[in-house]
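User: Fold this one for me? It's Ferri-bacillibactin esterase BesA.
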Amino acid sequence: MNSHRSPVFGRRVGALLFTAILGASQCAQIATGHPVHRPGLPRLGADQVGTPVVLPQAVQFDFTSRLTGQDYRLYVSVPPRLQPGKRYPVLYVLDGYWYFHAAARSVPADPGDHLQPAIVVGLGYPTDKMDELLRRRTFDLVPPPPPGGAMAGVEPGTGGLDDFIRMLLEEVRPFVQDRYPVDSGRQAIFGMSNGGLAVLRMLFRHPQAFQTYIAASPAIFHHNRVILADEANFGAKLQALETTLRVLITTAVDEQYRGTDPVLLANDWRFVDNAAELADRLAGLNVAKLKVTYTSFSDENHKSVALSALSRGLRFALQTSQVKSDGP
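Assistant: Here's what I get for Ferri-bacillibactin esterase BesA.
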């Protein structure tokens, strides 16, 4: 008698054979301690050529500013699941070549861990040469000395901050707002060191530009603390605002000399004291439209604190309603 096997039976036999082969392969892997090589990818070797790292959901734009005539690189990351019609908070990150990638990868795809999905915008320069990056940021992120200031207080290679701010506010921000679904009422800016100084300049001179300002270890010392010249008129500017500003100032405990050597004390940049004293003065304004938070990270110095400050800044800027509105 001839037997008949259905196609279903054949598929079952094939599936059983595949399972048996896979099981044998796994057993061989367990027995030898080495995974079975699957075709398609090369084995790692000295002759293998690497490829550029790609950051998902992110693009970059290289452009020449019509205001400064200089070249810049703009980085933009968007949430992977944009909802039609929804507007998203935006976080601007200065020194984007250092901090944009960490910020973009830390923002969640969906609300969770007390953070909201957000658009992250970084600003930097179209070069990988560190000397050029340092030269450009030193010029762009430090204000000029006061008019008629003593030459002893002038630092060469600095002074381009006000033009940089114009470029950011008049070229970059309109581009981002036209191209991406930005919630114009939830905009924040983060800067570290000279970038923190730039954030303070924007806070004092353009308080209406953002709702949240994050100045990490701001380099207030430049040009004999010229940045503080705008502090006197800041309270009056706050009165004209329609929204409440939130300001986070951070430092690292070990980024200031605390010894007794008079030479070292005279040459210290007072990162901690300058920032803490400014935070106290701002908090003392007692203006309903200003909420100030100051944080100093223990066991950190000026180099090591950057990611801690960025992490705290992300939470401060993008916290959900589950966190108190005036907390870090």
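One thing worth pointing out: The longest strand covers residues 182-192.
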